[in-house]
Amino acid sequence: xxxxxxxxxxxxxxxxxxxxxxxxxxxxxxxxxxxxxxxxxxxxxxxxxxxxxxxxxxxxxxxxxxxxxxxxxxxxxxxxxxxxxxxxxxxxxxxxxxxxxxxxxxxxxxxxxxxxxxxxxxxxxxxxxxxxxxxxxxxxxxxxxxxxxxxxxxxxxxxxxxxxxxxxxxxxxxxxxxxxxxxxxxxxxxxxxxxxxxxxxxxxxxxxxxxxxxxxxxxxxxxxxxxxxxxxxxxxxxxxxxxxxxxxxxxxxxxxxxxxxxxxxxxxxxxxxxxxxxxxxxxxxxxxxxxxxxxxxxxxxxxxxxxxxxxxxxxxxxxxxxxxxxxxxxxxxxxxxxxxxxxxxxxxxxxxxxxxxxxxxxxxxxxxxxxxxxxxxxxxxxxxxxxxxxxxxxxxxxxxxxxxxxxxxxxxxxxxxxxxxxxxxxxxxxxxxxxxxxxxxxxxxxxxxxxxxxxxxxxxxxxxxxxxxxxxxxxxxxxxxxxxx
Amino acid sequence: xxxxxxxxxxxxxxxxxxxxxxxxxxxxxxxxxxxxxxxxxxxxxxxxxxxxxxxxxxxxxxxxxxxxxxxxxxx
Lengths: 485, 75
Hints:
By secondary structure, chain A is mainly alpha-helical. Helices cover about 75% and strands about 5% of the residues of chain A. In chain A, strand 3 (about 350-355) and strand 4 (about 360-365) form a beta hairpin.
């Protein structure tokens, strides 16, 4: 086992690489509107089909496939080289997306190349997390595994934080016009290559996991990890339990608290783009240290209790929290004032007009070319903004409870010889499929008769409830005896 | 507790195919030519239904294991 400075270096090297992978995966999602304009024009049906495939296939099919593909390699060859490979694959794909000429320049080659690279991103992401979590866990002493692996758990949220931060920063530097209609959007993609080169250099210097190295030396590694993981009942039943009793619920809590919250604030509350993203950014930042807190507490209290509490809190509080978010920005209930309080801004300037309200917030109406209805954006007061930040931070706190201890939990569920494969698949089905379905199913629910703007939340609430029941009844709070074998 | 776990196994076994049938039914209800958004587009539905097949089977097998007492030792 590594101790002191040794484990610090291992955590840093693993976490930085994983954070970069999440950053790479998120920037595509965050810039999807611009990417659609550049590569997937609506007028071309083939491009529209490729766009849909890029959105859905990368998360739902390729991520779990990546978990199996790289998990198998990781259990046969080793953790170190496998997650080095996933990092290079992800970084290379991201960089190349930033280099592809637009649809206007090279026609349908553009969407096809973007689709291929997006699928490669999904494949790499499917292999990365399991490798990093396993690698850190196998270096950690058993009694502090929750604490050490929780650093890996921060990367998914910090990756979102860094991606939003980089996008906002580059938008400000190059200007909104250049970012949206010029080449400014390419810089977050191109930047990835520098981050990846640095991370690969650091990871190259690391040693193989001691548990795996020992297994390999003794000739006890698995020759067919897929068959052993999913063909043997003793392992397969634990894979199913991990999926339905933990990662399924964790995936929807994770997605709803971060991504659905962002989507809701932007599209339902209509909060102005920069203000909405800064709300998410600060909320993420405030809650992120709690990944470490709950990871560490899980070493003392057990993993199950903390994870299940996080799920239950999500189930109970999503409706009131989202309702409150909506209420803060709901301009239909606010009182309009003719004169703005103080000399804040002109009421009308060009194609932009403002309506001011008695609480200090305002509604910005922008007349867009080729559109009959104006684009509406709510600009919140400082107080309203901080209320939203608090609500987002509380939801991310639920994430830290379910997500902080889960790497240690998954690692302890499976033996070393098939760990990478066995833990990667339930993790990526839980997060990629159940979590990734949140916007789709939420939209589906809102089409039902009698639905309102909060009805979409019944999907994550339902899935988290189911996972909570299974987890409470079937999971053990004791550590399994597989972690060091 | 063991009895509840075993009895719930029947519920999970039924929930697997039910989840799949519900998705297929929703797809037929929502797919329409010229419709707006992803839920009227057949491509996402094909992807989602494809990936839901092994998940539904997995839930049914989980129920079967639960019914047979395979998780009785987990306390």
